[in-house]
Amino acid sequence: MSLINYSNEKLFDRLLNNKSNKNYWKYITELRKRTEKSVFEKSVELTKSNVAKEKILGINILSQFGYPRLHVKEILKIYFDLLKKETDKDVISAIFYGIGHNNENLTDKQIGIICPYKNHKSVNVRYSLVYAILAIDKTKSIETLIQLSKDKDSDIRDWATFGIGSQIETDNELIRKALWERVNDKYKNIRHEAIAGLAKRKDENIKGVLKNELLEIDDSGSLILEIIEEFGDKTFIPLIEEQIKSNKVLKKVNEDWLLQTLEKLSLPK
């Protein structure tokens, strides 16, 4: 049976009582589309439960309720009210993901409430905090992402580096310093995000790093080519041409990627 034929009650019942989480997000997605008052009120009611599973369900439904989003201010108030007393790490993480879906107009006060969670002992809480403040171009959130870009967990470092590197426009010495610290990270994805952030800011010192990355490029290196394109330095043209020649033998990278980058670099400015 198609989910469209399920009643609201049946969807809530499946979410609350099924032992398997197989269709969890499918059911939630369907309820998010049903913007009638009864679904909204039931979801709000669930956020007040003393049972973590029920509370998280309500939070998850409300996080993307309606398209375009409905009741955003009211939903954010619910989230921040919950944070005043909440100690369950899974509930806190759900709240942060919910905030992240609706963070376009967070106030300085709201940002100030969530940023101290950067020191939370739970990896999941710190990771979800990155999501909550991603693309917020304000001092407090930037400082928090800079700290999280140094986190012991590689996934947190990756997302936080992406956040300060590519998701904001602010350019200052603290951001560049944080990005340079990640250029030598042992994880390739993190290195590439740091390089992308410095290239976006036209940091001339990144040119040598980019050249070295180009020499070692393989099928996971499409981002490096995108970075070279954005950097827009025509001195990379002969290097790309050399890579195209050597790649015909080594076949380390998709040749079309190299050709596309060469074409874009060759365009007149």
From TrEMBL:
Matching InterPro entries, A to Z? ARM-like, ARM-type_fold
Q: Superkingdom, according to UniProt? A: Bacteria
Q: What is the protein name stated in its UniProt record?
A: HEAT repeat domain-containing protein
Q: Which organism is it from?
A: Flavobacterium hydrophilum
Highest classification ranks of the organism:
Bacteria, Pseudomonadati, Bacteroidota, Flavobacteriia, Flavobacteriales
